[in-house]
Design goal:
- The chain has about 300 residues and is mainly α.
- It has a three-stranded mixed β-sheet with strand order 1-2-3.
- Helix 2 packs antiparallel against helix 5 and helix 4 runs antiparallel to helix 5.
- It is elongated, with a radius of gyration of 25 Å.
Length: about 300
């Protein structure tokens, strides 16, 4: 499976996970309003940024596949730009929740407590556990195919733990009447979101400022492969930079007589030699395909 094929499969998992988490985010927003729980609202804010990061990553990858000169160049730059926007969203949500939490904490200290429906709060958290569990399971099955899927899987797993925290906060409030637990729980979630946002911003800024070596265009690589003897056509070509080394992946269709003579291994070696000589390619991932002939 080539990088683009793997990327498309990973993107399907991300879309399914996005649909699941968006559905629960709407439930959280309604539940936060009726339960008057800041912890539920904080979790919804966290989930909003999580969903927006998924959405922006999907847009970035789609644009990159169709418009970028190379898979590595376009996709990574688009991904870093989307991550920068999401990092700012993380910080904004965290600051707003922390500000509201501080305000409620001041009211609590002066005896003006906000009523919290602890039962509804716990029910929403329990439902969230099921939603996040489904999302995490879908992403878990594709975590080895894409680093992006693996990162989102980890995020979904932490969301799963967050619902557990909110659930127990609701139980504690119900049993003890300590409404301050809701405030402290929301501020704890916000601190996590704040540090995550800072980390995302730091990574994206470094990625955007990093000057990677220029990569050969996909068209140039495709032309070099086609010009090789016995090659009829090439498709699904990827040009990437892996740890400073140039890696090329491609599906290669051989001439019909080459398939009959079954010397595809020799053709593969010849293509690899051409790419190494012309573009200094360090590694090739080539899939040989036979010519489709209706008479055979």
């Amino acid at each position: 499976m080539t990088e683009i094929t793997t990327h498309q499969a990973s993107r399907k998992r991300l879309i399914i996970a996005l649909c699941i988490t968006c559905s629960f985010m709407l439930i959280q927003l309604v539940g936060a309003y009726y339960s008057n729980s800041l912890a539920v609202l904080a979790d919804a804010g966290h989930l909003f940024v999580h969903n927006s990061s998924l959405f922006i990553a999907l847009i970035a990858s789609t644009v990159a596949i169709h418009l970028a000169k190379t898979f590595s160049d376009g996709y990574k730059k688009a991904e870093y730009t989307g991550g920068l926007i999401n990092g700012l969203l993380y910080l904004s949500i965290a600051v707003l929740i922390l500000f509201e939490g501080s305000d409620r904490l001041n009211h609590h200290m002066t005896g003006n407590e906000h009523h919290v429906d602890s039962y509804l709060m716990s029910v929403i958290a329990a439902v969230g556990f099921l939603f996040h569990g489904a999302s995490a399971w879908i992403l878990y099955k594709g975590r080895k195919d894409s680093i992006n899927v693996y990162a989102v899987f980890l995020h979904s797993f932490f969301d799963l733990l967050s619902t557990v925290s909110t659930f127990f906060a609701g139980v504690i409030i119900h049993l003890t009447g300590w409404l301050v637990v809701d405030i402290l729980s929301s501020m704890l979630i916000s601190v996590f979101v704040l540090f995550t946002g800072i980390k995302v911003l730091n990574t994206c800024i470094k990625g955007l400022l990093l000057k990677s070596p220029a990569l050969p265009s996909v068209k140039a690589v495709e032309q070099a492969i086609i010009n090789t003897e016995h090659v009829e056509s090439a498709h699904n070509i990827t040009v990437t930079n892996a740890e400073g080394k140039l890696v090329v992946g491609a599906h290669i269709v051989l001439n019909h007589h080459c398939t009959i003579e079954a010397h595809d291994s020799a053709c593969r070696i010849e293509v690899e030699s051409v790419l190494t000589e012309q573009f200094k390619v360090a590694s090739c991932v080539l899939q040989i395909e036979s010519h489709q002939c209706p008479d055979h």
